[in-house]
Amino acid sequence: MTHTSAAVLPADSRYSPSNAPQLFVRDSDGNYLAAPDDRVIDAARQVVERSVSKGMKLNTPNRVREFLWLKLAGYDHEVFGAIFMDTQHRVIEFSELFHGTLDSASVYPREVVKAALHHNAGAVIFTHNHPSGEPDPSDADRRITQRLKEALGLIEVRVLDHIVVGGSDSVSFAERGYL
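The structure corresponding to this sequence follows.
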């Protein structure tokens, strides 16, 4: 059984990819073991959850991107989610709304509207990942974003952005002028 204690220990005093610093966890006997990547990602997600909490303003594009990258990193299938916010753009909740396959996820505007009403949201930022690592939005991504924007507009919920995460990069619909 392992505990959450962690340390970064260099494998050698000279840096190379083969001896890069490694994150270790301590087991119940006090021995340090190399932490598996999925455990590191899960721990990073927990840190992100604490750093972006209910009521917090996501007021910089970099903060939003870091948050979403950590939320979606490591998935081998598409995940479509939303950050629901109040009218002052303070976080209400992040929700993973739909899970798909390697290269697509079905997104249903009716379910997104229900979720926005459930959270009493005034604004939303959509996100999804591209497991291929290529963050450029597809035509289908642009079409569903427009449909969601129209549907949410009927209930006065603003769509602030849609960010596609791919690999270590991301693309913002707002920055590209797609919204």
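Confidence is low (pLDDT under 50) at residues 1-16.
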